[in-house]
Amino acid sequence: MNQSHKMATAEPELSQSPSKNSEEISEETSLEVVNPEGYIKHPLQNKWSLWFFKNDKSKTWQANLRLISKFDTVEDFWALYNHIQLSSNLMSGCDYSLFKDGIEPMWEDARNKKGGRWLLTLNKQHRRVELDRFWLETLLCLIGEAFDDYSDEVCGAVVNIRTKGDKIAVWTTDFENRDAITHIGRVYKERLGLPQKMTIGFQSHTDTATKSGSTTKNKYVV
Ligand code: MGP
């Protein structure tokens, strides 16, 4: 056996050297422990699905909705976010929706049926200045479970790109859960950095789906 081969086999080397003290051995073995920070992705509390909606008037609303991808780690979130267009670059009539895995981004889903949304309505100036920042902050609130004990109430969030004014909304599961909804609304407003005097309203999906005019009445306001 030549010398170079012998050096490559750590096991026999250890057992054949009874003279080595324990410090030397532990130094040798500790070299083999790799820091897990280097290769384990950071898990999120929930798995999330990102959906895209493109307005094709020849199809039904539901048929225009497409699942882009799912992720459940911080790293996979950023990989996806950095890969897709910013909301401000989308064509009018398009939406992004981020929902917990297993909840479809529509009123009809069992977890949305009795729910509603905190709605942020933006004007044309906002698109250039604030839209992308607000949407990213919304995504981070969701995946980071920012609403304390009430994060379980959150189903997802939607950004609508519209000529008449873009919209961003956080959808929650039950419009009767006043404590949860008001807490979520307050935290959300603070995270977006909205001024105190600017209010946002929460509307139930039932009211939104059956509205007759252009506005839906607010169930809560913060
Ligand atoms: P929208 O895309 O949420 O808002 O709803 P938009 O385009 O700004 O229109 P506005 O009415 O709010 O001014 C547009 C239309 O899409 C609705 O009127 C429904 O016909 C359809 N739609 C929207 N959502 C969120 C749903 C849904 O969850 N389920 C079904 N079936 N249709 C929906």
From TrEMBL:
PROSITE patterns: IF4E (PS00813). Signal peptide: none annotated. It comes from the Eukaryota. The keyword Acetylation does not apply. The keyword Protein biosynthesis applies. Pfam families: IF4E. GO terms for cellular component: eukaryotic translation initiation factor 4F complex. Residues 1-30 are annotated as: Disordered. Keywords: Initiation factor, Protein biosynthesis, RNA-binding. One of its GO terms (molecular function) is translation initiation factor activity. InterPro entries: TIF_eIF4e-like, TIF_eIF_4E, TIF_eIF_4E_CS. Belongs to the eukaryotic initiation factor 4E family. This is Eukaryotic translation initiation factor 4E. The lineage of its organism: Eukaryota, Metazoa, Chordata, Craniata, Vertebrata.
